[in-house]
Description:
There is one protein chain. Strands 2-1-5-4-3 form a 5-stranded antiparallel beta sheet, with helices on both faces. By secondary structure, it is α+β, with helices and mostly antiparallel strands. It is rod-shaped, with a radius of gyration of 45 Å. The longest helix is centred in the middle third of the chain and has 23 residues, at 144-166. It has 16 helices and 17 strands. The structure holds guanosine-5'-triphosphate (GTP). It comes from Curvibacter cyanobacteriorum. GO terms for molecular function: diguanylate cyclase activity.
Amino acid sequence: MVGTPLSREGLCTMILFDAEACDGPLPVLTDSALLAVLGQLQGATVAVVDRGLRVVYVNASFARWFGVPGHELIGRRLPDLYGAVAAAAFRPHLERAFTGEKVTYQRLVQEPGGRSVWHTISLVPWFSERGELQGLISSALPVHELQSTNEALRDAHQRLRAHMDNSPLAVVEMDADLALVHVSSRGQQWFGWRVEQHAGRSVLDLPGLETPAGPLAEALRRLQAGQELQNRVEATHRHPDGSLFHGVWFNSALLDAQGRTVSIMAQIEDVTELVESTQRLRDLARFDTLTGLINRGALMAQVDQSLSRVRGSPQGGQVALLFLDLDGFKLVNDLHGHRAGDEVLQWVARRLASAVRQTDTVARLGGDEFVVLLDNAVSDAVVQQVLSRILAAFDDPFVLPQGPVRLGVSVGVAVYPQVEGTVDELVGCADQAMYEAKRAGKGMVRYAEVAA
Length: 452
Ligand SMILES: Nc1nc2c(ncn2[C@@H]2O[C@H](COP(=O)(O)OP(=O)(O)OP(=O)(O)O)[C@@H](O)[C@H]2O)c(=O)[nH]1
């Protein structure tokens, strides 16, 4: 059939199926491509127009659409049939098709019953055997279901994206290789990631992750490997302005029918405030708020560790506890007020911290009581040296706005293993020795008694 001119009879035979369209004068169409195209258009609403947009062929469906016998449409111009508004809407498509391009577009069409239905409109250029453009074949097929489904999907997608962007969490979507696919606006803000800029790069290689090789990488790897469907992990990040933030990543994997991970979504919650307040609480539990030195509880834990280390070490070693109580401190409060007393305690803390070695520990037990713990390279000579520096730290007066204040200190010393016992016993021995120093006249140093 290809290449055979289509005769009036041939076309009429074809149009016999479209009885309404067939009566009346018919043009002779002479293109095999036209025949081929028309043959494939079963179920479609079809019209053929010449270069002047005059109708040369319509099928029954097209005639039904206009509610007139087909022959009444032959010779009429499309713009006249459809009206100016509709014609203006499809003119650009016609113009493209007249350049020789096959054009497909979708249009909401009012059906004869009044129902609006989405149609796919195809405009196929119709060429003569000599390659001259004769006109266009227009076909319309209803695609309502597909279109509605697409619209519903697009709506759902847009709603989901809007939810993602409104969420207080940052949402990051990755493919199975952890390459960035989508990042919500909050994620863009927190991490500085842009899909246009970072698409295809593994999230673990992007800027802003402080712990890329740590637990986060491991959690994502378990999802990639299909070992878990969801997990939760904490990680520390940096905002584009350089400030730190702590995030909890709630990750989930999407699997295909074969059970392979195809997508990973992370929803990240900013828990910086929580982490910082927990840290503050921990600090409060460990540190003395007035002086910033560690407190009694933290000191006891540290002495315990030091004793365990020395006891467990084949080389052994010494641990020295220097128990300090200020002499006549109550008078500072009484003379200058509690606030001045606080200031002196802060000064004492600073002077003690600079009197000891870097590896030594200074703690405030409460009131005017301090403990210095020496647990590293301790010898009798070292204890002596540190003691004399501590005593020297009280040589100079503490200068308050109210005037200079002179203070002394009494010190009790307990050195393990010369003094044996539990942490409490050791600290108790140093405390007892400090009382001996007080009794001996203050400003003195006394060693705890060594068990016979
Ligand atoms: N300013 C201030 N005073 C405190 C604080 N804690 C305890 N004190 C006071 O410190 C004093 C400690 O009492 P003592 O050790 O008996 O007083 P002291 O004058 O040093 O007596 P001696 O040790 O015998 O020389 C008390 O007056 C407490 O009220 C504090 O945090 N700030």
